[in-house]
Amino acid sequence: MVEKIFFQSSMPRAGSTLLQNVMAQNPDIYATPTSGICDVLLNLKAHFNNSLEFKAQDLDLMEAGKKGFYKEGMFGFYNNITDRKYIIDKCRGWSVTYDFVNYFYPDPKVIIMVRDLRAIVSSLEKKFRQNQHLENGIQNWTEMKGTTVDKRVDLYLNEAPPLNAPIDIIYDIILRKIAQKCLFIKFEDFTTDPESQMKRIYNYVEIPYYKHDFDNVQQFTYENDVFYRPFGEHFVRGKIEPVPDDYLSVLGKHNCDYITQKYAWYYKVFNYKI
Predict the structure, then answer these.
(1) How far apart are the C-alpha atoms of 204 and 23, rounded to whole Å?
(2) What's the CA gap between 169 and 266, in Å, rounded?
(3) Does an H or E element contain 31, and which?
(4) If you count DSSP H runs as helices and E runs as strands, how many of each does the chain have, helices first?
(5) Considering only CA atoms, which of 232, 221, 225 is closest in space to residue 22?
(6) Distances in Å between the alpha carbon of 19 and those of 42, 115, 249, 253?
(7) R_g over Cα of the chain
(8) pLDDT tens by residue, 144-203
């Protein structure tokens, strides 16, 4: 029987899949791949609020019913697919919908993996280069779109998923003070000293600590990356170790400077060196 549900709402290319598979080592934790539960709940909210049948009934009763439907629907879903006590559901929308979740599931615990934006953009660019055999929608020579590294950097940051929306989400939850209720884990800290970061997570979600094996991380989650091309890569390497920064050689110093200047707030909040 599921006792608690936690949420992971991380930046792309920041170790979210790795964290899920480390968490899944704990026999009491069911860690999801990228989940659609958040979208389901948001669609339910829209239907409840727009349906004439619900609006025409006693509003207080309907409010109580909606809260129960959201919460019990979420718990019911997981109670039918696992017998583990704790769930960590991964979706980038959980942090920005914090107030909605808090409405029916008070004091939700949201974990957010972040990473130096230069490293994230560099990782996206490397995925683009490695998948030239795929139609990616990034580079279009007829429209002269995404035809240079400089243009693609701008595209990743401002137009192309999966990075532009997560940046806005982080910015928004900081301004709304939601970030103060979440736990941020820096990818660089996690890959350098995973045990200390895992202890922070267990302390935050308030469950007993489990001794994890960081030298032998097995794949528990499954995602078909055909649906996430060209940037999706949801597999884990067996051992957690630091990842060298290569953004200068991949992007060039001028693009790295552009990123740090454009997102100076991000570098200040998360104390990344420029």
Answers:
(1) 14
(2) 12
(3) strand 29-34
(4) 13, 5
(5) 221
(6) 25, 13, 27, 30
(7) 20
(8) 888 999 999 999 999 877 899 999 999 999 999 999 999 999 999 999 999 999 999 999
